[in-house]
């Protein structure tokens, strides 16, 4: 069984949960015998090793291809990169952050083997939709050149590529919905994005949703027949790095952490309000908001207004090991997301022996037992739960122990098996 | 002739409201009046009142031949008084027929028997007094919360003056032995043990309306037939049920009331069967053997153990932190605090914190007012924190402690004094050292 997979990012260069999920899933899938994956990504990373990129023209970097071998599995997966600057989150997400970095990116040309060029602007805004379409054209050429049995596309940027490949080859298309624009925009849906998403969902032969929460949105907001949608939960990679990090907490105070993009979708303002309520009752506690996003300045201003600045810290965007270091210092992790299709960070926190509080409005709350669940808007309940975890030791101890146990059972191999079943049902 | 001992448990806990940590030290009212009143009124209307009415009818019809035993927790009685006084009246009417025996138990359905003998005794005394005030009976037989029993608890019950105790006929305790005999305690054989026949009891309370059950539908004749078919030598069938079985767990529409009425009818008309109260059974029957229960058992779950209340770390912490206060409570004279103290002991609070029922589709879970055991734990601990603050204010540390503190302070004062003198000495000794030479010269010069 050969799978042509379209995504937009792949480790080690990941910006969020989607890259982690794609990595875990492909790794899980590649452990099955007889299952081959070609992974196509529309994004070039600045620190790419030149030797791994095949150049077909002097000044053009076309579809790049490399092989990745997972150390502990037998199969190799093929990995393509298409040079573009597409990013998953536009408009009010961390667009502002990425844009400032990428203003300088030069225009580049993609040359396919058939000799036509596609211009990638390297900027965002009105051209974005155009670029996605270009990605689809590139996808078409990849589809033409390779043989495969099934197409699997991750999230909306890759849907048009998936559709194009399906049109060309006639092979079945699975789309994997990691988020919808309703999650990202808080209800203010971008009609162009919505159209792409809906087009993908309608064309797809099967849809995989990361939670029932997302499945319901697909049914309710995109009018897709329920029988076409399968829920397959994400999982988490066993994190060996966590044990290696030896970090001593420098202060004798409790640390409560929010870790994620500081955007509407993640509900940072509820965390700030809960912190304020808590700080009125407790002295030896500090709050950390780790991440960046368009609501960061607003949050900093609100924290100052509440007079909390000496106890409330902003770290900015955390990369790689910094995330684990942060978790090592954390006593309570809070994810107050307003609309979260899945939410992989609480699982990582649980791996790091941190008790977690998650909102009922997250997909991950559907599977987790050993977590405290609250409504994102209920700041009193949130503050109360934090207080309980910091004061009544047996609760934190219980959640640490049984939480770790629970999360160790959520393996990607298990999720991958369910994905494989979806493939099988389409091919038989 | 076989005896049938019919016993009903009646209990309703006082449920706590969402008590946030902001409330600690500010608001000392812990109860969810709305939930308590709604639930109690509903159960009174569906179960207590109609079942009492039926039992009164049966008791009047079969004068002296129909007998039943109750244990009603103090907290249930408190709620009847608050929200449905007519329930108490209907129990009093039933008592007047002479067919009712009231059993003793802890006032607040507590599990204090596992922790603190003094608190346990106090709770039992309080309950017996309440029963005497309302129904004019002095209980002779004891029934512990959730049928919790061990050899030790049995022995203590004897010391407190009771003749018998009810418990679960747990399979892992009885082994090949039958529950249908009278047993005695392993430490003190003078206290008799009545073992619940869980098969027959659960046929009524859990399986009655289950259409997937192979014996469905259960008729009065069939059930009496089963009892009749038991070994000839078997002497007593103990049917111990939760009273909510009638009209609540098994709804009226299932025909449970008709079943009860006709079943009593078939038993009374059968020459081989008769109803007895626990006290009567203890007097009439000869115990056949001791029953050895070194570790506490209960009537809960498959395991018949204590893990529903004391299974995880949270439950254990809450339990320990609660009974740490018992010493102080002995010096507390404040009625409000004593009341809250009793309600804090309800075993239901610990049950809500159980993590056993995550996957299981247990029938009992519907009673849990909390979404998760963690929420239940946090809420309880918040209440307990506030209660502890109030108790510390009301009962300052005892004189003995104050004396100890004063003694220690005295020692510190003495040591301080000593340190000061020694410091002065050091200073004195250090000064001449620095000016040793000039001084000595001067001395010489002088």
Summary keywords:
heterodimer; A: 428 residues; alpha/beta; Rossmann fold; 2 domains; eight-stranded mixed sheet; six-stranded parallel sheet; 15 helices; B: 446 residues; 7-stranded beta/alpha barrel; 3 domains; 18 helices; 50% helix; elongated
Q: How much of the residues of chain A is beta strand, in percent?
A: 15-25%
**What is the share of helical residues of chain A?**
40-55%
Structural class of chain A: alpha/beta
Q: Under the CATH scheme, which architecture of the largest domain in chain A would be assigned?
A: 3-Layer(aba) Sandwich
Question: In angstroms, what separates the terminal alpha carbons of chain A?
Answer: 11 Å
Taken in chain order, the helices and strands of chain B follow as: EHEHHEHEHEHEEHHEEEHEHEHHHHHHHH
CATH topology of the largest domain in chain A: Rossmann fold
- The pLDDT mean of chain B sits at 91
Tell me the greatest interface.
A-B, 22 and 22 residues
Return Rg of chain B in Å.
30 Å
Based on Cα principal axes, name the global outline of chain A.
globular
Helix content of chain B: 40-55%
Distance between the termini of chain B: 122 Å
Indicate the structural class of chain B. alpha/beta
Number of helices of chain A: 15
CATH architectural type of the largest domain in chain B: Alpha-Beta Barrel
Contiguous uncertain segments of 5+ residues of chain B: 359-365
Write down the Rg of chain A. Answer: 22 Å
**Which whole number gives the mean pLDDT of chain A?**
79
What form of chain B results from the Cα inertia axes? Answer: elongated
């Amino acid at each position: 069984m050969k799978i042509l997979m379209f995504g937009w990012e792949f480790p080690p260069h990941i910006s969020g949960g989607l890259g982690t999920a794609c990595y875990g899933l492909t790794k899980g899938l590649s452990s099955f015998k007889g299952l081959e994956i070609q992974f196509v990504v529309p994004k070039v990373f600045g620190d790419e090793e030149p030797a791994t990129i095949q150049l077909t023209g002097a000044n053009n970097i076309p579809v790049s291809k490399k092989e990745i071998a997972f150390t502990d599995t037998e199969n190799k997966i093929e990995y393509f990169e298409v040079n573009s600057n597409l990013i998953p989150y536009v408009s009010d997400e961390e667009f502002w952050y990425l844009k400032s970095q990428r203003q300088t990116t030069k225009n580049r040309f993609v040359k396919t083997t058939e000799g036509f060029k596609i211009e990638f602007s390297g900027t965002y805004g009105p051209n974005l939709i155009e670029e996605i379409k270009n990605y689809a054209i590139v996808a078409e050429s990849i589809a033409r050149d390779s043989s495969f049995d099934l197409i699997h596309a991750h999230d909306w940027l890759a849907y048009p590529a998936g559709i194009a490949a399906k049109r060309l080859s006639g092979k079945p298309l699975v789309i994997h919905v990691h988020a919808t624009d309703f999650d990202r925009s808080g209800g203010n849906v971008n009609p162009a994005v919505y159209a792409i998403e809906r087009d993908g969902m309608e064309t797809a032969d099967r849809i995989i949703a990361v939670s029932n929460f997302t499945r319901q949105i697909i049914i309710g907001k995109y009018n897709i027949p329920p029988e076409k949608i399968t829920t397959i939960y994400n999982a988490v990679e066993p994190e060996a790095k966590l044990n290696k990090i030896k970090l001593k907490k420098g202060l004798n105070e409790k640390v409560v952490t929010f870790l994620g993009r500081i955007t509407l979708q993640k509900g940072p303002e509820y965390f700030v309000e809960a912190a304020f309520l808590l700080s009125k009752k407790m002295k030896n506690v500090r709050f950390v908001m780790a991440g960046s996003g368009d609501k960061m300045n607003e949050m900093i201003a609100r924290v100052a207004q509440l007079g909390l600045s000496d106890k409330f810290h902003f770290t900015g965007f955390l990369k790689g090991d910094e995330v684990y270091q942060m978790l090592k210092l954390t006593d309570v992790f809070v994810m107050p997301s307003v609309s979260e299709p899945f939410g992989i960070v609480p699982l990582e926190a649980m791996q790091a022996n941190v008790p977690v509080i998650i909102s009922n409005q997250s997909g991950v709350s559907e599977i987790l037992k050993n977590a405290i669940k609250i409504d994102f808007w209920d700041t009193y309940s949130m503050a109360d739960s934090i207080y309980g975890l910091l004061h009544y030791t047996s609760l934190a101890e219980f959640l640490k122990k049984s939480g770790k146990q629970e999360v160790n059972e959520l393996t990607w191999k298990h999720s991958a098996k369910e994905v494989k079943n979806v493939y099988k049902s389409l091919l038989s | 002739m076989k005896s049938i001992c019919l016993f009903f448990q009646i209990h309703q806990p006082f449920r706590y409201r969402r008590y946030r940590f902001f409330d600690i030290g500010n608001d000392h009212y812990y109860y969810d009046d709305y939930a308590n009143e709604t639930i109690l009124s509903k159960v009174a209307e569906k179960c207590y009142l109609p079942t009492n009415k039926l039992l009164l009818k049966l008791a009047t019809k079969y004068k002296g031949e129909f007998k039943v035993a109750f244990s009603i927790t103090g907290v249930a009685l408190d709620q009847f008084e608050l929200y449905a006084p007519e329930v108490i009246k209907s129990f009093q009417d039933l008592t007047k027929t002479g067919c009712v025996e009231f059993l003793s138990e802890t006032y607040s359905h507590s599990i204090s028997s596992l922790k603190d003998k003094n608190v346990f005794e106090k709770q039992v005394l309080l309950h017996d007094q309440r029963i005497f005030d309302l129904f004019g009976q002095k209980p002779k037989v004891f029934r512990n919360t959730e049928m919790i029993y061990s050899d030790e608890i049995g022995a203590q019950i004897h010391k407190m003056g009771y003749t018998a105790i009810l418990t679960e006929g747990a399979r892992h305790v009885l082994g090949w032995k039958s529950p249908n005999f009278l047993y005695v305690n392993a430490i003190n054989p003078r206290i008799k043990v009545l073992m619940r026949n869980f098969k027959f009891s659960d046929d009524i309370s859990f399986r009655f309306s289950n259409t997937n059950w192979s014996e469905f539908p259960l008729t009065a004749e069939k059930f009496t037939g089963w009892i009749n078919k038991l070994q000839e030598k078997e002497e007593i069938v103990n049917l111990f049920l939760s009273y909510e079985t009638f009209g609540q767990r098994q709804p009226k529409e299932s025909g449970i009331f008709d079943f009860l009425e006709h079943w009593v009818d078939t038993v009374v008309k059968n020459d081989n069967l008769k109803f007895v109260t626990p006290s009567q059974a203890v007097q009439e029957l000869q115990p056949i053997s001791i029953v050895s229960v070194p570790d506490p058992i209960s009537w809960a779950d498959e395991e018949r153990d204590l893990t529903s209340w004391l299974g995880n770390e949270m439950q254990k912490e809450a339990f320990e932190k609660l009974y740490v206060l018992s010493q102080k409570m002995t010096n507390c004279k404040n009625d409000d605090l004593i009341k809250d103290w009793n309600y804090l002991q309800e075993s239901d609070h610990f049950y809500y914190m159980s993590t056993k029922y995550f996957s299981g589709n247990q029938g009992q879970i519907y009673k849990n007012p909390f979404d998760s055991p963690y929420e239940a734990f946090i809420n309880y601990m918040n209440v307990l924190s506030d209660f502890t603050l109030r108790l510390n204010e009301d009962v300052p540390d005892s004189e003995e402690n104050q004396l100890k503190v004063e003694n220690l302070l005295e020692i510190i004062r003495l040591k301080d004094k000593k340190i000061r003198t020694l410091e002065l000495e050091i200073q004195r000794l250090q000064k001449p050292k620095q000016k040793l030479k000039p001084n000595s010269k001067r001395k010489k010069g002088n």
